[in-house]
Predict the 3D structure of the following.
Amino acid sequence: MSGGGSLGLKIASWNVNSLRVRLPHLQRWLAAEQPDLVGLQETKTTDDKFPAEALHASGYRSVFAGQPTYNGVAILIRDAQFEEAVDWSAQDPRLPDDQKRLIAATVTPKGTTTRLRFMNVYVPNGSEVGCEKYDYKLRWLDALKTRINKEIASQTQLALVGDFNIAPEDRDVHDPQAWHEKILCSTPERRAFAALLAAGLTDSFRQHCTEPGYFSWWDYRQAGFRRGLGLRIDHVLLSAGLASGCSNALIDKEPRSWDQPSDHAPVVASV
DNA sequence: ATGGTGGGTTACCCA
């Protein structure tokens, strides 16, 4: 599907840094913004404790893959907008291990025959350039690229969203000199991100804004948010058909200003 | 000035 019109869907990604703690923020944001598909990262909860009922009361079905303490991803699907049948899966045999960092769902907007693929990832942070976790991050990204190439080849419309833990370019960094070749900004990480775009995806935010100074994550330390010390590391990437119908994309900084916030802001695209 | 905060948990963890 290329050159098509818009589906009229608002899709989003948000690293909530503990769904247990952030559920009130999430519900407040869902009610205000009414996104149709949401990828959540760092839910930090096991599946038996996932607040599926509370989210259903907010109008969303959930699919989720969690583990104790770390990681955890979920997809929220707005009931009113989609057919009931949802094909979903977590994990991928190409990935280096079983950490819960990837989940994908195929949904059908009500009254259509469109098959929309929504993939949500929590890319490893990598800790520090050159360390073992950094190598793991690059291996994980290589596996993701292979997976994305396969998804793109399947010709379905694909949105790949998540916390990529990569600021793609210097304009995505508050102080490019200070961050030069540091974690989240190093050349191998940026190449891995570029390889995802080269597979046939578009960074929706950069379709609508080319200016520096737009960030999606601010460190809790150093009063990062108040001082504007951020990076743009959360992304909504769209295959060609979706990108051509993408009418808007933004970073919603408001929830980052609320009490007890996640360190990430939600990112949104209208397709 | 090389720290700091905020999740998780009880691991000199992870971001």
The longest strand of chain A covers residues 116-122.
